[in-house]
Amino acid sequence: MPTDPAGAGPGTAAAHPDPVRLRRALRAHVEAGLHRPYTQATVLEALAGLDLEVSQGVALSSVTAVVRGARPGPVVLLQAGLDDLSTAALVGAARILTRHRVPAGSVVLLLPPGEEDGSDAGRVIGRRVVQAAGTAPSESYTFHGRSDDRVQGIFRSRAGTVMGATDTFSVIVRSMSDRNRLPVAARIITALEAMTTRRSGRVDPVTITTLAMAPDNRLSGTVVTFSEDIRTRTRLEISQLCTTIAQAYGMTAEVAFSGGRPTTLNDAAACEFVVGVVGETLGPRRFEPLPAPIVPAGDVCRVLAEVPGCHVFVDAAATDDAILADASLVLAEVARRSLERLTAG
């Protein structure tokens, strides 16, 4: 049983199961990485007693809960981010959906594990959702809370690319002799910076950041792009540029990419659907279009790559707990109306 880090004693989430108390408990005990035992246990306590089919990850600290409708039907996925706001709102949505059960279909509520710099996280999550619901979801809606003291409960998203792709790369300059490789590495850094400058004013900009140079002249850096086509071309251009510069000095360059996340793509129809739900539920002023994609990307990119849907940001002050009732209602309405639309065909 988790203990409230603020000193309220054990079982705080269970004793005060409303989303506000849950959010405050999570905010007081922030966990990072894939293993988040306090978060997992606290969410499980908050869901206890609800008419849900709940399962939990073992190797990964995830929580999956299924709300069954009165009869079988399509499946919709609601996923929270790693922040306290969307996690508490997801629990709030679970309470609404269990009180007002949908006529047909199922809603899968997913609290994911921490971010993972590999390509398996999306597949692991996908398998868990299918195992929990018995069938793959038709639509997915993911939510992430952001702290912004300038606004009071604004929902934001956009059709198409909503978050850019991120890739990590390394370059090793090698020479058959003892010739100094440092000037070659420095030339490569300058050329990569120039590549970023050339792309800075375009519709699909590229940002290349060299993070470090190790004693063995190994360079490491990150690349941010905003379309899969540009991402693929940029990887090729970086490899060709490094190789060409090294060869000009009679050396070779080994370029490797790892830990990449693709662009996060919102389905246009799903995004328009969310805009409508927010407008009809809370009023049109509570939704504002996201003017441009943001970085960094998260593992949600792989969920949306498998199941079309929409990723939504909820911006509110860090201490604004009043937003939780609105956010919980929006999440529940998105799931309910999505199932109604899918059931109607």
TrEMBL record:
InterPro entries: Amidohydrolase (IPR017439), Peptidase_M20 (IPR002933). Transmembrane segments: none annotated. Coiled coil: none annotated. SUPFAM superfamilies: Zn-dependent exopeptidases. This is Uncharacterized protein. It comes from Paractinoplanes aksuensis. The lineage of its organism: Bacteria, Bacillati, Actinomycetota, Actinomycetes, Micromonosporales.
